[in-house]
Sequence to fold (69 residues):
Amino acid sequence: MLNPNLKEILKDKTSRYSVVIAVAKRAREISEDRDMAEKIGTEKPVTYALDELIEGKLRIVEPEEIRNI
Fold:
């Protein structure tokens, strides 16, 4: 996915900063996991992580949510 729709990603009022941090952390996890890296093949870890976020497989927890728990 080259240009995802930010309105779609930010529909639950998640900040852009949170999206960048979450996708970067997940991409690092993917690149460090050899089995996952083999699974995604030639696709870049950042693209795969962003796809996971869009599909709802990756959830972003804002700091305000943590304080309210």
